[in-house]
Amino acid sequence: MMNQKSKVKVGHLKFVPKTLLITLKAKYLASRDSSISYKDPYIEQIYEQIEDPIQDAPLFFLFKRGIVSRTKGFDYLLKKEVKKRDTPPTIINLACGLDTRFQRLSEKLGSCQWYDCDLPEVIETRKLFFKESKQQSMKEIDVLNPDWTESFSEVENPIILMEGLSMYLEEDQVQSFFDILSKKFSHYCLILDFISPFFVQKEWILPVMEQFDVSFTWGAKGGNSFKKFDQDLRCEEELGFIDSFKNPFTKILGPIFNQKNMALLKK
Q1: pLDDT band at 49, cuts 50/70/90?
Q2: What are φ and ψ of residue 197, in 5° steps?
Q3: Is residue 8 included in any domain, yes or no?
């Protein structure tokens, strides 16, 4: 990671790419909150070098706990899948934003090949803070462009991560994404998150979302919902954002939030 003497401006990020900043802030605040079991020194270093445009909003303390729950869920599912593999896998981290998963988990991932992928403006920002290596590199990718898989022409049965993106896609775009995967990979593992259909077009439930020119456009009821995009898919495991919440809000919000929001799918 690189050090910057002056604050990095991130005003060029718009629409969905801009949402990486809210994830960054949530993880930063969680990492510095002694009441939350989460520590990410890499995120702290990045956040302290940028000009933060995200204003405080009501219920953000719940949002940051949800982000941490999602982060831990992805970590758990990824480590579990890597452990099952006989050989080090290729891991394709789509819509990576300023994710630090490789840095945090590298010792547990062994000699896997890791690719952080996102839109050009995000990768441009990411390169201010991260250096590529033989094991980890960055690629400019639009997940809805069918050509993106050409960057992985020799890859078989990858582990693909897609965190924080599906809720901003339309259903036909989700279908296109799975069509692209099926055309290129005869076998793959996909770890992704999604929101309940209840939350679609209800950003007012999370006041901080009012600062973004985006809307939630698609939701799924569970991991098995993805079979409609590819009948060969199977859901091996599901987790929920609220699974790790141990506070009074669990009882209050349970009927709305207590569903599965992350899945490990295989083909």
Answers
A1: very high
A2: -55, -25
A3: no
pLDDT band for 184, please (50, 70, 90 cuts). very high
Read off the tokens for 166: 């599906």
Name the pLDDT band for 119 (thresholds 50, 70, 90).
very high
**Structural domain for 245, as ranges:** 15-266
What mean pLDDT, rounded, does the chain reach?
90
- Number of Cβ within 10 Å of residue 93's Cβ equals 25
Q: Domain with 62 in it: what CATH number?
A: 3.40.50.150
Residue 116 β-bridge partners: 93, 138
What are the residues facing 191 on neighbouring strands?
Answer: 161, 264
Helix axes 60-84, 20-31, angle to 10 degrees: 90
Q: Does any domain span residue 105? A: yes
The pairing of strands 189-193 and 113-118 is unpaired
The answer to the question of residue 7 being in a domain is: no
The pLDDT assigned to 4 comes to 47
Count the residues in the chain.
267
